[in-house]
């Protein structure tokens, strides 16, 4: 080791004070320098000389840092100095020897000691209590009445048991991973089925809305038709009464003029057409304007709508059979969601026309 230390001291650069860095140049005075360090000293000694890429390219001079001998350089500068290949080889050998001569760190095997008898190594195993212990504990200590076994045999059996347990746990982990994959797939299938069933439910409710809208439109048209018929009849009757009133006013005016006739024969002649001027007009029956016969009661239908729910398994089969018989053109396949068909019955209304409700009366 002393030889290696002495050799390392000889391989120290006087400029950077570290081991020579290749390439190593030798000066005319036989001292060695790193080429980089020699270039730094050369530039410091010749600050005004032109440089290229940080290196002097023309001749110059500097002094050896070890012996102060003046070194004269040619136009190549420090690159004109001769390399010391011997020193470079010695550096390589020194580094290789230093790396191989370092002892590898030894792994110290620590043998556990007994906590009660601190100078005794743990060398037996208490089978009764399931703990390792020392021989002194078996002879004089807490395990003197216990069953013991050599620690090596217990070590092998426990190691085998642990190995089997690890293998079993690895197998269980694989199975659990498979179960997790199945559960994730089940979640994906459930989400997909849920979306499909919600779509079916919305479609069935849209069909129900369509039925209700159609029935509402049909019943409203019935009410509107009778309403228009009655209104038209009343308006026509009003026109007739107006015309009769106007004619009656003219008759009254003519009758007043006839009353002033002094000639009896002429009076009797003018009175006869006036007395015959009578007309028969229709009379509106009491309650003719009433439309209560179009009243509806959807209590049962409302109860049925509020009771809408998903079909059970047995009901689902019956519903499929009924759907197949009622509408064979519909697509095949089970329909998991159905809505009860609720169609409110048409309100009972009078079949008699407005003209039948009229009775002739003399005005």
From TrEMBL:
PROSITE patterns per record: COS (PS51262), ZF_BBOX (PS50119), ZF_RING_1 (PS00518), ZF_RING_2 (PS50089)
Domain (RING-type): residue spans on this chain: 13-68
Gene Ontology annotations of biological process type: cell differentiation; regulation of microtubule cytoskeleton organization
Entries under Pfam families matching the protein: zf-B_box, zf-RING_UBOX
Keywords from the UniProt entry: Coiled coil, Cytoplasm, Differentiation, Metal-binding, Microtubule, Muscle protein, Nucleus, Transferase, Zinc, Zinc-finger
Segments of skewed composition (Acidic residues): 311-332
Residues annotated as transmembrane: none
GO cellular component: cytoplasm; microtubule; nucleus
SMART domains the UniProt entry points to: BBOX, RING
InterPro entries documented for this protein: COS_domain, E3_ligase_FN3/SPRY, Trim54_Bbox2_Zfn, Znf-RING_euk, Znf_B-box, Znf_RING, Znf_RING/FYVE/PHD, Znf_RING_CS
Subcellular location field: Cytoplasm; Nucleus
Stretch list, region Disordered: 311-363
Record field: compositional bias (Low complexity): 339-363
Top EC class, one word: transferase
Domain COS: 259-311
Catalytic activity: S-ubiquitinyl-[E2 ubiquitin-conjugating enzyme]-L-cysteine + [acceptor protein]-L-lysine = [E2 ubiquitin-conjugating enzyme]-L-cysteine + N(6)-ubiquitinyl-[acceptor protein]-L-lysine
Domain B box-type: 109-151
Protein task: May bind and stabilize microtubules during myotubes formation.
Protein name: Tripartite motif-containing protein 54
Species this protein is from: Liparis tanakae
């Amino acid at each position: 080791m002393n030889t290696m230390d002495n050799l390392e001291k000889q391989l120290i650069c006087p400029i950077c004070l570290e081991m020579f860095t290749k390439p190593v140049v030798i000066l005319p005075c036989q001292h060695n320098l790193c080429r980089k360090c020699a270039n730094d000293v050369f530039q410091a000694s010749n600050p005004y000389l032109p440089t290229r890429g940080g290196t002097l390219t023309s001749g110059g001079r500097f002094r050896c840092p070890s012996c102060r001998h003046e070194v004269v350089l040619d136009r190549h500068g420090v690159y004109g100095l001769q390399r010391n290949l011997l020193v470079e080889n010695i550096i390589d050998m020194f580094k290789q020897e230093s790396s191989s001569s370092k002892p590898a760190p030894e792994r110290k095997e620590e043998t556990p000691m007994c906590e009660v008898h601190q100078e005794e190594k743990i060398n037996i195993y208490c089978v009764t209590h399931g703990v390792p212990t020392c021989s002194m504990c078996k002879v004089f200590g807490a395990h003197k009445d216990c069953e013991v076994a050599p620690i090596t045999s217990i070590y092998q059996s426990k190691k085998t048991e642990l190995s089997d347990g690890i293998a079993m746990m690895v197998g269980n982990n694989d199975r659990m991973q498979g179960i997790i994959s199945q559960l994730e797939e089940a979640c994906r299938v459930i989400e997909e089925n849920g979306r499909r069933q919600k779509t079916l439910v919305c479609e069935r409710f849209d069909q129900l809305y369509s039925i209700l809208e159609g029935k509402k439109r049909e019943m409203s048209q019935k009410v509107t038709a009778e309403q228009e018929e009655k209104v038209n009849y009343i308006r026509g009757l009003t026109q007739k009464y107006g015309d009769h009133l106007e004619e009656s006013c003219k008759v009254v005016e003519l009758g007043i003029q006839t009353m002033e006739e002094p000639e009896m024969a002429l009076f009797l002649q003018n009175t006869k057409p006036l007395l015959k001027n009578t007309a028969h007009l229709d009379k509106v029956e009491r309650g003719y304007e009433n439309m209560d016969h179009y009243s509806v009661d959807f209590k049962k239908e409302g109860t049925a709508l509020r009771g809408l729910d998903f079909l059970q398994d047995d009901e689902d089969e019956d519903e499929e059979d009924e759907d197949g018989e009622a509408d064979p053109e519909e697509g095949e396949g089970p329909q998991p969601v159905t809505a009860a068909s609720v169609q409110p019955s048409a309100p009972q209304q009078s079949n008699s026309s407005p003209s039948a409700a009229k009775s002739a009366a003399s005005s």
